[in-house]
Amino acid sequence: xxxxxxxxxxxxxxxxxxxxxxxxxxxxxxxxxxxxxxxxxxxxxxxxxxxxxxxxxxxxxxxxxxxxxxxxxxxxxxxxxxxxxxxxxxxxxxxxxxxxxxxxxxxxxxxxxxxxxxxxxxxxxxxxxxxxxxxxxxxxxxxxxxxxxxxxxxxxxxxxxxxxxxxxxxxxxxxxxxxxxxxxxxxxxxxxxxxxxxxxxxxxxxxxxxxxxxxxxxxxxxxxxxxxxxxxxxxxxxxxxxxxxxxxxxxxxxxxxxxxxxxxxxxxxxxxxxxxxxxxxxxxxxxxxxxxxxxxxxxxxxxxxxxxxxxxxxxxxxxxxxxxxxxxxxxxxxxxxxx
Length: 339
Known about the structure:
This is DNA repair protein RadA. It is built from 9 helices and 15 strands. By secondary structure, it is an alpha/beta fold.
């Protein structure tokens, strides 16, 4: 028994797939693959992987630039001629870029990146190039013992909150591709008798130091003399600056030991002069928070919706000190004494 076929058959059986509709072929010669496929009634073919295929038209080793380019060219012409859908698997580099010549990405109709970490149960399918549709689309799947299952509401998968509201926690409306996500930002601010330190997981370290300095100079809230620890729950890596406001509110909440409302969400970029700058796709973020039961949302004034969003309370602010006043219900003099 062919070990490749046996392994695929065992996995298909475990996942409950119909074995009578699944064929496996152990072949690396492109001409032979096209010849066999043209004789069968096949709707979809998975080629794993393009780096192992070769064509006799090129006198080079498998995986070389010329072999990958010519093999992919033959396969794409075959797919367009026969109408068979080809899913070509390619290796990736350490930088998570598609290995091989860049022309390979231009030859195919769509490039999908299947991402995930071994310690997380979720997998993401990201569209980075689509000839017939939009890019930056994202699908989220749950890795189960029965295979991958689509996550119906991906906006909530990284929101893991328990019980009553606690100090140092706030929900941020982030965005990955075309999908908004609700993510919990946690902060712990502690007094120290030694040199203060800042530690942040899921965000850029230098960004945290910059934000704390802005808050000290523009809102007169000095947290730099404390130890500050910030964490993005769920192991996410947030790169957008729309997380600025959530990080600062979580830090002040921990410093004052005052919990923020459990049903409040936040997003906004903080500028060097303390202004709250607009973020892209604000309306979609607001609607996503409202759809998931949040009653209050803090947004930049530029992103304030023109029409009411149901019964949701929208707090639109221009400057950082206004945010602290609105959220913590303090007057300006008391705010200057914080920290």
